[in-house]
Amino acid sequence: MIDKSVRKVNYLAWVMATVFGVITSFFLVWGYQLEKYDSVNLADKNALILLLCFAAVLTVDAKHVWDGYNNSYKGKKFLGLLDLNKYRLIEAEKAERKEYFFVWILLIVLNIPVLLAEFPGFFVYDAQDELNEVLTRTFSTHHPLLHVLFLGGTIALVHKLVGSWNAGIFCYLFIQMLIITAIFAYVILYLRKRGINKKAGLFWTLFYGLFPTVVMFVLCSSKDGLFAALLTLLTVFLLQMTENTEAFIQDKKRIIAFILTASLMPCFRHNGFYAYLVFLPFAFIYFKKNIKSVLTAALVAPVMVYILISSFLSAAFSSEGTHHQEILTVPIMQMVRVYEYDKDSMTQEEVDTLKAFIPEENLNLYSPRVSDMVKVGFNNKLYEESKGTFWRLWFTLFKKHPFVYVNSWFLTSYGYWYPVAKINVYQGTTVFTFTYDESSYFGYEVEQPGERHSLIPVIDSLYRYLSIGSFHKDAPVLALFFSPGVLIIIYLFVLCYRISIRDLAKVVPFIPVMLTWATVLLGPTYLVRYVIYLWFCLPLLFVRRI
Length: 546
Description:
This protein is mainly alpha-helical. 65% of the residues lie in helices and 0% in strands.
């Protein structure tokens, strides 16, 4: 019986190692082709051989590392080098409330110099549009209404009181910083209760307080920071839920906190709602023994609360609906790519139909890695009247050019999974205070009516260099820590390992994160802002078995 069990576990481990190896190999080989040639070449035999070699090596290496980690629980050194047992506590050190406030205050102290250096803060990524919605009382669900009201209302109120737009922006970002760092402090407290020692707790505290990619979005006005923070908090609650379900059910305060978190999270990014909906069946299967408990109601309640909040806000502020091109980005770009490279294969009727939905001036602005200039001219009224015509054209062109469609989709998303992808999709685009040239890793600027007055220029120069400068070219190895592609491979490596040892209690909580990541693959382009939660949730990924 023991031999059969061992063989079964080893078999699953090899399967998951193969899954990791094959997927990562596709990321590396296809990502390279997309970066260099703007397409995947399936006829390239050398690329196929390289893919198979990568898959074999990564599979064997993953299995070897996993075996070493498993053996470390038996007293052996990890890979013959490290004694992990001295870092693994059997009982968590007592984490007091005062430790939470110490971490929170430390995080605030670490963020304030950057906020002063970037005074009034990073007011960017649709910030002006959201503020104008409040000022003009003209609302749209294109931007989440709760965020529009929070951001615009705070800035408008402070401006009315003191007459300064910069003061309003600073106050909003300071409040946002307090919220996000409070969530980070709770994450650190959870990790301490799970057994990490003070040195590890300090490391992750410094990660949250100093790592530039994290700090950028703590101090950025975009909804992505708050969304990512709430998704991180949701992940903590789900970890607590899977670790001790009965204790979680008995804790009414945590149940209420979970419902509020899961309800508010999609209020800052709509794709969070779709990810949570898809997550629910997985949750019901995992918690099937508790299906008749209050847990089921707690899992379902956020869906109802979110719908009520969204409906109330839309009705109260008479907001316009979301434009269709926001969810049609992929099919729009696929048809436009056919028009750009294979126009001769299209009939005149097909060309005319495409131009009816997308004006020719927008078709001529096609850029393979970002859809903004193409989709902005989309004829929403015609789509509402003739959805069937749009989709018939899409399917007709798909039958003629299936690989063009695949390449089109990959080109707007491969930056999320290719580790060394150059994130410069806005190159040549002029914004308020600069023109993107070397990089568009982060927006960096202050949109009007704000104006930057740096109080610590040396820090400002550093963040400008990291955001829109040549950092990724000057330090390619260090830049890997700033790469979404590297992080998603780390997540894939860890989650495949946990599946291999059947530790589903550490897999289920990350399903919303991975599903949210999957939704951005259907988005308009690849930017760090859309996946900043990969950095926010990273410490939670390293919660170990005790």
